[in-house]
Amino acid sequence: MKKEFQFITGTLVWYYYICKREVWLMSRHLTPEQEDPFIEIGRLISGFAYRDERKEVRVENMVLDLLKNRLNALISFGNSLLYTICLSEIFFTHLDPRIGFLHTTNFRRFSLNLDLAEVFKPIIVDRVIFTLINKGMIKGKHFEKRLEGIVLNDDGKRLFIKELEERLKTTFYHRRLKRKVSYRRLIRLELYKIEKHLIGEEEYSPFIAYW
Q1: Does the pLDDT at position 138 exceed 50?
Q2: Per-residue pLDDT for 37 more than 70?
Q3: Structural domain includes residue 183
Q4: Phi and psi dihedrals of 165, rounded to 5?
Q5: Is residue 205 predicted with pLDDT exceeding 80?
Q6: What pLDDT band is residue 135 in, cutting at 50, 70 and 90?
Q7: Of 69, 82, 91, 207, which has the fewest CB atoms closer than 10 Å, so is most exposed?
Q8: Backbone CA torsion sign across 59, 68, 38, 209
Q9: In degrees rounded to 5, what are phi and psi of residue 65?
Q10: By C-alpha distance, which of 134, 170, 167, 132 is closest to 152?
Q11: pLDDT at residue 9, as a whole number
Q12: Quick one: the chain helix, strand, coil %, rounded to 5?
């Protein structure tokens, strides 16, 4: 057990709060393809997020960066909405939202919605954030400072929710189904795939977006 914890560093702890996938890769000494378009998107987010205020906290030989900025507020609020949307879609299926396959249950009541959201964060939440930023829709007046950091105010939340609803209603051509489906419908279809996997009808393969 002691040997296992020798590999936990301050960098891994820091990345745990930013991207759990990156922690998984780094802990196994795996390096993603640097020319991958998703890596470029990640660099864009990183560059925008980390240029704001930094505060370092030292714990023995580890240095943790506490980031307080507007992009994190957008990501946090967007993810929380997506978790709720995924949970509501689970209730239309025979799946138990308390039983997940990626996130542990521990103190959480539900975990399957968190697992499902991982598939859709890049194509729903991230896309909404890109739209709000690139079109200049989100501004400084949509944020406020609180003890825990920077958060969206009521006007900012309404703006985000409106754009998220538009994204969920947007349709695209589904290559496998050979027809157009909305992103909200896509979430339900992903749940049906998990059901088929559990009953042994078809091996589960997560949705992959083609850019």
Answers
A1: yes
A2: no
A3: no
A4: -65, -40
A5: yes
A6: very high
A7: 91
A8: positive
A9: -100, 120
A10: 132
A11: 60
A12: 55, 15, 35
**Does residue 164 register a pLDDT over 90?**
yes
The answer as to whether 31 is a domain residue is yes
Output the pTM of the full model: 0.66
Q: Which amino acid is at 113?
A: N
**pLDDT tens per residue, range 99-124:** 877 766 555 578 899 999 999 999 99
DSSP 141: G
> Who's near 57: CB < 8 A, 6+ residues apart?
63, 64, 66
Q: Residue 2's domain spans which residues?
A: 1-35+55-66
pLDDT of residue 185: 96
d(CA 170, CA 147): 37
CA–CA dist 59, 14 (Å, integer):
12
Task: Report d(CA 99, CA 194) in Å as an integer.
Answer: 12
What confidence tier does 207 reach under pLDDT thresholds 50, 70, 90? confident
Model confidence band, residue 148 (pLDDT cutoffs 50, 70, 90): low
Helix 70-90 × helix 183-198 angle, to 10°: 60
Q: Would 112 be classed as within a structural domain? A: no
Measured distance CA(203)–CA(201) in Å, rounded: 7
Q: How many domains does the chain have?
A: 1
Which H or E run includes 25?
helix 20-27
Distance between start and end Cα atoms, the chain: 43
Q: Which residue has the tokens 């990626």?
A: 102
Distance from chain centroid for Cα 31: 20
Dihedral angle sign, alpha carbons of residues 76, 78, 81, 87 = negative
